[in-house]
Fold:
Amino acid sequence: MKTKIIIKYFLVFAFIVAQFFGPEKNEGDLVSVASFIAETNPPENVIKILETTCYDCHSNKTVYPWYHNITPVNFWLASHVKDGKKHLNFSKWDEYSLKKKAHKMDELYEEVEEGEMPLASYTWTHSEANLTQEQVDAVVAWGKKAQADYKLQMNLE
Structure:
């Protein structure tokens, strides 16, 4: 019985100490997505969708929820952001080739159309990121147009 109490106290102590350590935050600014917006020219409703559903994990600016301050949740969130930026980072859009931009736009609208994005784990805590069919259709239409524009530019080169 005494061993169980010692283990419980140790776990509580370890949890408290862990709160003083956390991953680096993704705290750039949204100015970094300006070239992406200028280049792909999304309509105003799609810009709003991108802001509420995509940028937290796919740009250099994450708006963190209150529970991000709790370890180990903050490490889990940091892992999601890192993985999201690995697949697509709107803040680094200028660094992508035309071919890669066309491919990323294809992936973007397909993921949204198939309901793969935004992730269910994100929409659980960000209800505004639950997209209506009208919003999905708007993102898909814009994405297809932007992808076609990139493919046209590639053919002109």
Notes: Residues 2-156 form one domain. The longest helix spans residues 133-156.
